[in-house]
Design a protein that fits this description.
By secondary structure, the protein is mostly helical. The chain contains three helices and no strands. The chain has helices at residues 3-27, 46-57, 65-79. Helix 2 (46-57) packs across helix 3 (65-79).
Length: 121
């Protein structure tokens, strides 16, 4: 085997090993589980605990004031826009006056167009 080919093979293998090592180092050790975010409330969110209670109560939750407040808060939290939405306004269009032709009549006022009196089929 040629020495140049062997050197290229070794270089490709070394580059692959270096990329793998860099990927493993950037990935971390795996102790942080991204699929289960930590909650500030270990027993569960207060709103979700109240919603669970209202769900368990059934139809009697309609008359319960605490359930109605929890439902209203839940709607407000999820239906509120994340940022203020401004109405769309189209940007003003500036016309380039240098590209416009000067206004001039195509025919002179004292001459009459001979085709104006003709009637088409």
């Amino acid at each position: 085997m040629d020495l140049k080919i062997a050197a290229r093979i070794v270089a490709v293998i070394a580059l692959g090993a270096a990329m793998t090592a860099a990927f493993m180092a950037l990935r971390g050790n795996g102790s942080q589980d991204a699929s289960s975010p930590r909650s500030a409330y270990p027993g569960g969110e207060p709103a979700s605990v109240e919603l669970e209670r209202c769900r368990a109560v059934g139809m009697a939750a309609i008359a319960d004031e605490a359930c109605r407040k929890a439902w209203a808060e839940n709607r407000r939290r999820f239906l509120r826009p994340s940022r203020r939405v401004a109405p769309y306004a189209a940007p003003p269009i500036e016309k380039d006056q240098s590209r416009l032709l000067p206004l001039s009549p195509s025919t002179r006022a004292d001459t009459k167009d001979p085709r104006s009196n003709t009637v088409g089929p």
